[in-house]
Specification:
The complex is a heterodimer of chains A (137) and B (161). With 137 residues, chain A is an alpha+beta fold. Chain A contains one helix and five strands; from the N terminus they run βββαββ. The radius of gyration of chain A is 23 Å and the shape is elongated. Chain A starts with 10 loop residues before the first strand and ends in a 6-residue tail after the last strand. Chain B has a single domain, classed as BH3618-like, CATH 2.30.290. Chain B has a seven-stranded antiparallel sheet with strand order 3-4-5-6-7-10-11. A four-stranded antiparallel sheet of chain B has the order 8-9-12-13, with no helix packed on it. A two-stranded antiparallel ribbon of chain B has the order 1-2. In chain B, strand 10 and strand 11 form a beta hairpin. Chain B starts with a strand and ends with a strand. The chains are: A alpha+beta (137), B mainly beta (161). Strand 4 of chain A pairs parallel with strand 2 of chain B.
Amino acid sequence: MLVLRRRAGEAILVGEVEIEIIEISRSRVKLGVRAPHHIPVIRKETLKAAQDNLLASDLMASRGREVVGEILKMLKPPDSAAAVPDRIAGDVPQDKPTAAQSQVEAADLTNRHSGSASGCAQPEAATRVQRPPLGLN
Amino acid sequence: MEEDKTAVVSPYLGEIQWAHGNELHFPAGLPGFEKYRLMIPVEIPSQRPLVYLQSAEKGEVCFLTLPVLAVHAGFELHLSDDDRSLLELDQSMPSNAGPPALGTDVLCLALLVPSGLTVRTNLDAPIVINLHNGRGVQAIAPVASAGSWRLSEYDGWEAVC
């Protein structure tokens, strides 16, 4: 590994990427990175999250409905402290939405300040199905 | 006067409509999905406590999540300075420089990832939403603490060693 000593305000170049030392404190260094748009710059620890996120998105795209059913079977009845409070949920008359057939509407987010003592309140972007979904199965 | 509505068609959830400006704003996107900055949380009562995070910009981008406390009741949120800054927490709760309160200041969601025949989640990378301003970030801990959890058919959520 190449080791370089730099002071605040100094920089290094890695190919076409410039990394500047902006600030040095007792235990942390603030870096500024100038890179072409096609070169992603991420914190190393986000790499695993990015891989997981891609898998998570694929999950919904490939077998979302099936997976949701399985998960719901496996989940124990939600603990009251962890359940999503009713007040932020809209009126959703049907159990499941279906692709391109249900019309779901996000509620108004005018009061984002109200939380919940439950510990997992949602923002008031609750949803409601405007029309009942058609032909789920 | 009718509200200015925006909509996206999700292959799984169908057409979702919301009033313009009510999206959750992820200033850095999510890792792997950096260019999608606007998300809509969707909840279906019969599927509680599941919460869908649907991209407002691309119908195909949708995540399945759970409130973190539904996975691990002892969860404690640790936010880096960078994440606090992205969430604008200090501006939202200037009188309190301490950790934000779950449910009052922030909503924490655990993102579900397929794992064999079930799902797992990494509680060291929760999705955190500032309830005061609708800004969100995936807060990735540089050092593991809450760890990964896996949903078991018989035992519910189990910590993965």
